[in-house]
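Example 3.2
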Amino acid sequence: MFMENEKIKNYERMLRDFVMEHTEDVLKQPRSFIRYPFIDPGSVYDGNVWDWDTYWSVYGFLNLADRYENPEMKDRLVEHARGNIRNFFDHQLEDGYIPMMIEVADWPEPYLNMRHKEGVLMNMHKPFLCSQICLISDYTGDYSWAECFLDGILKYFHCYDRYYFYENCGLYVWRDDIMIGMDNDPATFGRPAFSTANIYLNSFMCVELAAASKIFQIFDQGELGEHFLKKREKLITAIQEECWDKRDQFFYSVDADIKTRKYDWFHQGLGVFWKTLPIKVRVWSGFIPMYAGIATKEQAAALVKHMFDEETFGSDYGLTTLAKDEKMFDLSVTNNPSNWLGPVWLVANYVVFRGLMNYGYRKEAETICERTMMLLGRDLEKTGCLHEYYDPFTGEPIMNGGFINWNILGLNMLDELNGKEPMCLK
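Structure, written as tokens:
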């Protein structure tokens, strides 16, 4: 058994009790134009259905589902998890666009959809839609509820390929820096539209394509299943060719808006022959290829060294979301955008933890888990609640008390170290 340390065991009990006692706080009923039950992150995000937030909430809650004293809670969690998916498809537009967030508001439909219909292309649902369908369906052993979404899934990927894919380099790009998950990631924040092929977006897209393949194979549509696997393999090749930096031994986001810009008779000779330029900012997302299983063993070994380097990402509470020696490193209290310029976020801790486990670095994964539990346990002891993100030097919460969401993933870490299968795509 992992973690015989009494302090950690006590924090584990505190965290489980806290999450289970506050589950009702984030299970929301239909309201406004949100027609199905859903899960929100808690805190200041009451009444909002978010894309990757709902995925990680479901990831954590389904791991706990069998522990509730009330046997009906398991069914309710599944109902709300499926409701997340139903709400997103309920607001899918004709061209396949699905908003990143559905909010309760006075207007008649999600704001992002309204803008899209006006001809303003916004970022769309991050690549967690099929992943969440698989997460729920693998847990229940039932995919039948999702059959009605097959056409919508095809339109969703078609929309990604139509608006956000650079054929030249084979990578997906953000339209802009609005609601990209890691709000002020310097690799995208403040940069030109359609220029950043973010390693976050492309790594999680590899997982999403595998999930889509599984869904279509389950419904006996083998050709489509194979189609998505081939797309995934091509994307992995592009990530390896364009995002891996051999000198720095790190995965970077890249600038994909690269072309020979001719003017009059200038630039008629050797033009730009490289497909991308690396955006050499060390962000925690450079570790996501280990979570996605697309890093080589040699690359994983190099990345592990970065994770625990005290000069860059190493923290007593997990890891910083931006390397400490980057000029943008900053711990300011900020919302919209939330601050990913160094604070500890639990989702980053978990993704790194899972990547370590995927590649056999159990001892290092135990270190991340122990640091995570100390962070959350001390917060519960001191404040009686959990927060959205934390100071990597002191472990003090920075803002948004009452936030639950992916903080649950500390419990996933403990359970997985004790032999439980991870909730991720099987």
